[in-house]
Amino acid sequence: MRVVAIDGPSGSGKSTVARTLAAQLGLEYLDTGAMYRAVAFAALQRNIDPADADTVAKLVQDLHLVTDGPNVTVDGVDASVEIRGSEVTRAVSAVAANPDVRRELVSRQREWIRTRSGGVVEGRDIGTEVWPDADLKVYLTADLSVRAARRQQEIGASNQHDVAADLARRDAKDSTREASPLTQAADAVLIDTTGRTVEDIVADLLGRLP
Fold first, then answer.
1. Deepest in the core among 30, 71, 104, 177, taking most CB within 10 A?
2. DSSP assignments along 147-172, one per residue
3. What share of residues in the chain are helix, strand, coil (percent, to 5)?
4. Helix axes 99-116, 32-45, angle to 10 degrees
5. Distance CA 46, CA 132 (A)
6. DSSP structural state of residue 142
7. Residue-wise pLDDT tens digits, 154-196
8. What is the extent of the structural domain holding 60?
9. Which residues 6+ apart lie within 8 Å of 1 measured at CB?
10. Domains: count for the chain
11. The CATH number of the domain where 112 resides is what?
12. What residues does 121 pair with on adjacent strands?
């Protein structure tokens, strides 16, 4: 079993690096953030307040979630595009802070890894909570302005300042929540992706693998 855990805030390059690294290693790739976004999407579709912890916790228990690379299906509906929208983005921090939701999704993420005998898994608590025994733990970061520019391009937003403010708010929420906060594992490799190419970063990580 070979597991690479990649953590970091939004816009740090986690998804691109993780997908590229997985392809190089011949491993499958899991975006755990997409799972939390899928729960937020499902709640909004049912007119459930994402901050209603008890109702969302019940919802996630029976939610049929399928993640296949960048594609995400929620109860049989392809939500790959919708989960990246602004409405879900605003709602996801409340869902991710829900301890019961995290407990359920972490269990599913561990099962995903066991079923595939490994993988490249990215999120915010992979090295600290989901798979602390990963062969390689990585924490990616980047300047806020760079992260905002990347995110702006991804979602097609018009105002980079607003995107940067949204990222800063989410960083604060994710790093201060009680349940599995966004934090660097003590034994994780810290990589600042500002000004570095994906190829350079992936080559760096391949050289660090045991």
1. 30
2. HHHHHHHHHT-S-HHHHHHHHHHHHH
3. 55, 15, 30
4. 130
5. 35
6. -
7. 777 667 778 888 888 888 888 888 888 889 999 999 999 999 9
8. 2-208
9. 113, 117, 118
10. 1
11. 3.40.50.300
12. 5, 30
